[in-house]
Amino acid sequence: MTRRGSGPAVVDVADLCGDWIVHVRELEAVGVSRRTAFHRCRPGGPWRTLLPGVIVLHNGPTTRDDRRRAALVYVRQPAVLTGLDALELHGLTRIPRATGPVHLLIPAERRRTGAGRVLAERTERLPEPVHSSMPLAPVARAVLDFARRSRDRNHVRSAIAEVVQRGLAEPATLRRELAAGTSRGSALPRAVLAEVSDGVRSVAEAQARRLVAGAGLGAPLWNARVVDAAGRFVAVPDAWFDDVALAWEIDSHEFHLGPAEHERTVRRRSEMMAQGIVVLQTLPQHLRTRPDAVVEELRRVHATAAARPRPPLTAHPA
User: Fold this and answer.
1) Confidence of residue 201 (pLDDT cuts 50, 70, 90)
2) Which domain of life is it from (predicted)?
3) Phi, psi of 232, rounded to the nearest 5 degrees
């Protein structure tokens, strides 16, 4: 259906363009002039402008997904979403919410500003996109693109730890990706990857690692696989002091995968105690609010563990 002299009717344009978010060039291609398009984007009109030349064909509220799609239309292909926007679409849950400019990777030869709402990062290493509803950078690239621009160590720890814990990328893959990219902003992700390579898998464990470094007890193994004398699996404690068979558990839902994982943690502790392992439980908030008391308790429990015969257990590093 058309209206004489003004091109397609408002209700027909999305069907003709194949989407609700379009560039003005696409509107011209189906018979809507620029003048008509921008007139329809006036205050109170049926459409809205999201980015220069990019229009959403309704005047209701827009979502983050709308802004991602608008950014992709604005920069044109080839381009991929990266950083928090990509990580969210990859299904990560322990990351900050994506706000601010939409982070995109575009070819190095492309010249495109972001109009304050798009971070269009030019790169010589444009990755092959992982296609979901939108083209995404692979997880390893996306998490390090976020980490290089973040100043929050705990946010970077949480994101990288979740990627590794869920098997979305191995530490070695992340190290290679970090080495292949720019050195700008690499110090923080490099430090966090050192923690993860030691077996640390959460923010709380990273804080505990820093505390234990000054406790004079030697470095524990993080998330090591403990087996009995017959080679049967016993548990994977957060931290394992192998010399005295002491398991240190950071006791919180927040830093694991949810209530089901917490239930498994409780069962794991029971199995460890049945094997003669001394288990110390510490609340994550005490690592921040009572660090001296945590270290003192750890030393005391370590001494208790050392005073009894060590059970015949073997730990394999993460």
Assistant:
1) confident
2) Bacteria
3) -80, 140
Contact between 99 and 109 (Cβ < 8 Å): no
One domain, residues 207 and 191: no
Mapped to the 3 state alphabet, what secondary structure does 173-192 carry? HHHHHHHHCCCCCCHHHHHH
pLDDT digits (tens, 9 = 90+) for 30-75: 999 999 999 999 999 999 999 999 999 999 999 999 999 999 999 9
Q: Provide the domain count of the chain.
A: 3
What percent of the chain is predicted at pLDDT more than 70?
Answer: 92
Q: Are residues 169 and 228 in the same domain?
A: no
Asked if 52 contacts 79 with a C-beta cutoff of 8 angstroms, the reply is no
Q: Find tokens 């370590």 and name the residue.
A: 302
List of residues 6+ apart from 265 with CB closer than 8 A:
249, 251, 256
Pair (78, 23) in one structural domain: no
pLDDT score for 133: 83
User: In the block, which residue shows the tokens 């002091």?
Assistant: 241
Look up tokens 């690499």; give the residue: 186
Strand 246-250 relative to strand 278-282, pairing: parallel
Give every CB contact of residue 108 below 8 A, 6+ residues apart in sequence.
Answer: 122, 123, 124, 126
Domain region containing 19: 13-60
In this prediction, what percent of the chain has a pLDDT beyond 90?
A: 72
Residue of 36, 35, 29 whose CA lies nearest to 9: 36
Q: Is the dihedral of CA 277, 278, 279, 282 positive or negative?
A: negative
Q: Which long-range contacts (C-beta less than 8 Å, at least 24 apart) are formed by 44-49?
A: 46/10, 47/10
Q: What is the pLDDT of residues 242-293, one digit of tens each?
A: 999 999 998 654 444 455 666 776 787 888 999 999 999 999 899 989 999 9
